Amino acid sequence: MMKQLLPHRHKSKIMEKLELLPFPGDVTWNGSIIYLDRDGVINIGSEDYINSPDELIILPGVADSLAKLKLAGFRLCLVTNQSPINRGLWGHDILEKIHDKLIAELLNDDKNAFLDLILYSPYAPMENSIARKPEPGMLRSGNIIINSAELNIEIPLESSSLSPSILFSEGGMSAMVGDRYVDYLAGKSHGVRTFIVNPAIGLPQVISRILDKNDKGDVMQ
Question: Rounded to two decimals, what is the model's pTM?
Answer without folding.
Answer: 0.98
